[in-house]
Write the structure tokens for this entry.
Amino acid sequence: AISELKSTFKKGGNQRLHPLFHSKVVETLLQQPEAPRALGQLSVVNAQAQIEAVEKIFNYQEKFSFPTIFHEEILDASACMTPEQEIQWENFLTLLEKASEADSVTKKQSDDFKQMLKTVRELDFLPLWMTRFFLPEAEKMETQGVSKVVTMLQETMTPATTILLKEMHDITQEMHALRDNLNLFSDPATFDKVWKQLMELHAKLACTDETLKTRLNEVSPLGRIATYQVMGSFVDLYDSSIKSMKASTSFTSTKKVELFTQMLTPYFELLKGWTTQLSGNLLQYQSNWPLDKYLKELKSRLDATGNEINQLNPSRWFRVYSAILGSTTAFDRALPDTKEDVFTLIHQNLLTSMNALLGSEMNGKTKLPSIIEQASKIAETTSNLSVGKYFIEADGVGQSESLIQLVGYSFPLNQIILHYNYPLRNHSATFALIFDKPTQTCSLDVKFLGEARTRFSDMSCALQFLSSIQHIKLLEVPQINNMELSYSLKLVDSEDILNAFTELKKQAVFTLVEVETDAFYDKFLMWVTEKYGNNSTIIENLGLLSKITHIRHNVYLHFVDYILQENKINTWDLFIRVFYFNMPIIFLDYKYGRKRKELFDQMLEHVQNNVSIDNEFLAKAECQLNELALSGETNKNALEYLFSKDSKFISNAGIAKIIFDPKLLRKIGLDAELEKLRHSTLPAFTTPQDDDLWQFYQWKSIANRLLEANIGTEQALLIHDDINTDPKIKEVLAKALKK
């Protein structure tokens, strides 16, 4: 290094930065402590990046005939996402150099600006600063001049802002450390330690008084945005901490309920502080439920929840999109019942607050690469679901919009990520738009969260099929576990974006469907919606009919059957019955299934083109379906028959053992084993006229439902109401069967 420095001095010339570079190398090496196992700062690991950086500085400096001031700042172009943005940054620095040389920008202004950039860079907020402040302001240089732009940019880093940013940076580091140890929340030996750390962070961000609110009013928009980002990250950390505890196998269920309650109380206080102090005036409220009344009722519901084990689970009919802040549904018609419901609602309301706070500072004020800008606009329009209008509840829950919520920006190395939340029922979806700088491409990462079971498999198959015909562009096979479906799509152009979000909306609709086998019902419902509009009472009545009969495909079957009878098309009646009783064959047997599906499509087309649906017609159908629902056998009756000693179907106790034994439930080959036993014990039905056909399909439905319920005992073997059965097991079994 010393030899290279000597050689550079001997060469002379006008390249003033070359000697400086080599002298810095010697200086660094002289100050480097002895570390035999360490690689030096200049090594094969980072030499290429160092060389490229030096070349950029050399090339920048050689543009000028005078000593430069901002040659190091040219490297900040790395925080720009496109070549065009990098050129904007270099052009800005070039104008700033010339203005400084001409004294139209003072030395103090230059020094202050360099110091501001240094602070923003060291605190890891440079990409955010570029996206939200520099790039939008750079467009004003031609009209306002570089000096005025520099002044405006310097105002983003006031002394109060600098102090707050440093605090947020420190909090971020603490959160990273805690996130790396989330597993400690699942261990009784370490829970108290990490809980204390979480509460220390909570105290810094909870906004229990006006201190944080006052500070946020005193800082620049950069300080507020950075704080909101940290707050959003804390919501995610708190949510993950609770889920880590709940997923633990080291706590008893009783202890989990106790800890769940302990963790939910500060979580509610977080929501109360943020909404009353920060986001309250940015949110909309149902007319009879102002914020203070809403929060009091939510706290009351939390306090009223008991200590039963079922508090860890969502209630059957809770719909978070109807209860969330901003919903048009009165809160008393969408109340949470269990602690899990309250947890979901608090979490979604915190994300709603983040959406409002970030929106107030970011919406329409950023400069993003064109592809992700276009994707974000389509995301926030195409994917809004009028969920209440599709699936109105029989108990009168009103109509609600499930709106896409932009809840955060993040800037990993060479990326911009926009984070979205998508509240659905007692589950949700999250997705992220990711722009990658090296490839200049955009992708959509989607996660559906919740217990959707076989529905996720259906969604995965649909995605793979659509990708095979190039309708969407899957980057990899969708990943599924029992609580999540995740997939990634490549977005190249506007057609890709529109297809991706149209499909996301359809997938979200599918997660709201009650039964997995109802694709044809939904196809029919979507047609009616397109024809009559979301606001039509026809849509409400169709949703109501699905609740009355409890089994959604029966709504379709009998409703269309009723339509056909009214229109004197009796031949279709026979076809529909054959079609539905053989529905599994359609998906398993290509030879016969293809013909039946073609017939179905012809039938649906006929109904669409020739049947006029009005509310009077629907009223008649509703009466018919209501009578059908009241006269039909219940699942309890069916199970008692199937498990009775007189049943010719269920004579093998091994089937019951498979259904109820939790060890077997965890076996990988469970589905195949259960299918094999079904085939070996059930008669092979061949014609839909067989009187026992209904029993066969009821058995499959009940078996699947019991599997989903995960009832944990092998004592309930054949008859669920055996007097010798453990009372607790009997209670769980009764709930699973909706007794």
In short: The two ends are 83 Å apart (CA to CA).
